[in-house]
Amino acid sequence: MEGLLHKLKGLDAYPKVNEDFYKRTLSGGVVTLLSALVMLLLFVSETRSYYYSATETKLVVDTSRGERLRVNFDITFPSIPCTLLSVDTRDISGEQHQDIRHDIEKKRLDSHGNVIESRKEGIGGTKIEKPLQKHGGRLGKGEEYCGTCYGAEESDEQCCNSCEEVREAYKKKGWALTNPDLIDQCAREDFVERVKTQHGEGCSVHGFLDVSKVAGNFHFAPGKGYYESNVDVPELTAEGGFNITHKINKLSFGTEFPGAVNPLDGAQWTQPASDGTYQYFIKVVPTIYNDIRGRKIDSNQFSVTEHFRDGNVQPRPQPGVFFFYDFSPIKVIFTEENRSFLHYLTNLCAIVGEGSSPSLASSTRSYTMDRRRLRRKWR
C-alpha cells in the first residue's frame, strides 16, 4: 500500500518547494501584480462575451416569390412646395401609382426649415362667378357645363370640367402645362393660388410605400409625372427649372434589425446651376435576422450609387429625385447564438493557466538561483 502511495506521490505535477529556498524580490512582485491585472481584465472580457450573443452569418439563394416590399422614407426638399411635390412609383411588371397620398405625410417648411402651421388651402384664391364654357362664353342659366380642353380635345364632344381633366388631356397629347394660371378650371380650383401662396417654401415628406418585390423605382417630382414611350415628361415646367436640392433623413427597406446600416441616412445633395434629375441606383439584399429569443425579422440591406442627369438635354428629363431599385439573388441570414458554458469554462481555465505562468517562471528562476548559491556555500 505504501508503495502505491509513493508512486502516486511521484505523479504530483505541482511539487512543493521548501520555504528555505523562497526569496521574495521586487521584480517578482511586479510580475505577480501585472499577471493578476491581466488575468482580471481577461476574466471580465470573457465573462462579458459569454453573456452577450455572437452573430453567425449565412448566405443562401433567395427563393421567395410574390412578396411585398415596404419602403420607409423621410426626405426634405427645401425649395419645392408641398402643393407641387408628388410621390410616384412604377415597376417592370407595369404596376404604377401616381401622386400617392395614403401613408404619407407632408409638412410645409419656411425658408429657414421651420414647420409652418397648417392653414386652410385656397385662402385668398381667385373668385370666378361663372365657369368658362367650351364655346368661349360663361355658363348661362339652364346651360350644361362643358369646359374647354384648350386644344387638347380628342373629339368635339370631349369636355374638361376640372383642372385635373385639363392636365390629363395635356398628358395624352404629350404637352407640358406651362401656364396653369391661364386655365380657367385651375384658377377656379385655386390651384394656381396655392402654388403662389407656397412660393419659396419647402416640403418635408415622410411615410412608407408598399411595392411589389420586383425591380422598379419610386420618385419625388414637382407635378405628377407620366409614362409615355418609356420616357418621363415633366407635366409642369417653371422658368429657370425646379430646384431639387434635398436631404435624405431616413431611407430603409423593410423592418430594421439590430446593427443595420442604411448608407443614405443623412445624405444631402445641393443642385448646381442647372436643373435635372438626381438618380439613386439601389441594390437591395434580402436579409433575415434571427435574434436570441427566436424572433425572426424579415428585412433588407442595400448598397447605392448616385448619378445626376443634367436637364439641358433633349428629350428633357423630368426634374425630380428618382430611386431605382433591384434585388440581389442572394439572401443573408443573421443568427444570434450564445456560447456554451463549457466553452466559457475552458477559456477561464486557459486564462488562469496562462496568467499564472509568468509568476511561476519567476518563482522557479529564484528557486534555481538560490539552490546554486547553497551548493557553492557547502562546497
UniProtKB/TrEMBL annotation:
Localization: Membrane
Keyword list, A-Z: Membrane, Transmembrane, Transmembrane helix
Transmembrane segments: 25-44
Source organism superkingdom: Eukaryota
Domain Endoplasmic reticulum vesicle transporter C-terminal: 149-353
Domain Endoplasmic reticulum vesicle transporter N-terminal stretches: 8-97
Main location: membrane
Keyword DNA repair: no
GO cellular component annotations of the record: COPII-coated ER to Golgi transport vesicle; endoplasmic reticulum; membrane
PANTHER family associated with the record: ENDOPLASMIC RETICULUM-GOLGI INTERMEDIATE COMPARTMENT PROTEIN, OS05G0490200 PROTEIN
Name of protein: Endoplasmic reticulum-Golgi intermediate compartment protein 3
Source organism of this protein record: Aegilops tauschii subsp. strangulata
